[in-house]
């Protein structure tokens, strides 16, 4: 797929994205986890077909997509932009309230991945090699490694795994403490 994406995603506030064809749990909106929000955005773009995106911004208040100027003129770009924006604003997104920046939280998170998330993913048939502890503990790279970031799976399967094997303990999850 041709993807010349120059993405202008809001850097302040929560990074948000979303789109899901499966039924909503308990009839409510799907909450898209931060760790896979970018993959969700790519899913919405892929639904539009083989188009280039020149800019894309989204959050819980809405979305704005612009197709690349070189997109085939026979394609109704306004309709495709609306389709992408509709997909991105269909559901809600998890607020990012815990950046895991201090060494204590990183140590807790590493132990949780080692003891809970990675074994759970293994039971689900996923072979995950965790980042070495010394790299995981480094504050220089921003947020620590997350097993979901490198998974090359369809979005629906990724969301299913995320729900079955949460990447954060409840005490560190958004709204927890």
Report on this structure.
This protein has helices at 37-47, 77-88, 103-123, 133-137, 155-164, and strands at residues 31-32, 53-59, 62-67, 92-93. Helix 1 runs antiparallel to helix 2 (77-88). It is α+β, with helices and mostly antiparallel strands. Residues 1-25 have low confidence and may be disordered. It has five helices and four strands. 24% of the residues are buried. The longest helix has 21 residues, at 103-123.
Give the gist of this structure.
The chain has 177 residues and is of the alpha+beta class. The protein contains 5 helices and 4 strands; from the N terminus they run βαββαβααα. Strand 2 and strand 3 form a beta hairpin.
Q: How many helices does DSSP assign?
A: 5
Shape: elongated
How large is the share of residues in beta strands? Answer: 5-15%
State the share of residues found in helices, binned by percent.
Answer: 25-40%
Uncertain segments are 1-25
Largest sheet properties: 2 strands, parallel
Radius of gyration (Å)? 17 Å
Termini Cα gap: 42 Å
**Secondary-structure element order, N to C:** EHEEHEHHH
Strand order of the largest sheet: 1-4
Number of β-strand runs:
4
Mean pLDDT: 74
Report the structural category. alpha+beta
Helix-strand layout with pairing:
Layout: E1 31-32, H1 37-47, E2 53-59, E3 62-67, H2 77-88, E4 92-93, H3 103-123, H4 133-137, H5 155-164
Parallel strand pairs: 1-4
Antiparallel strand pairs: 2-3
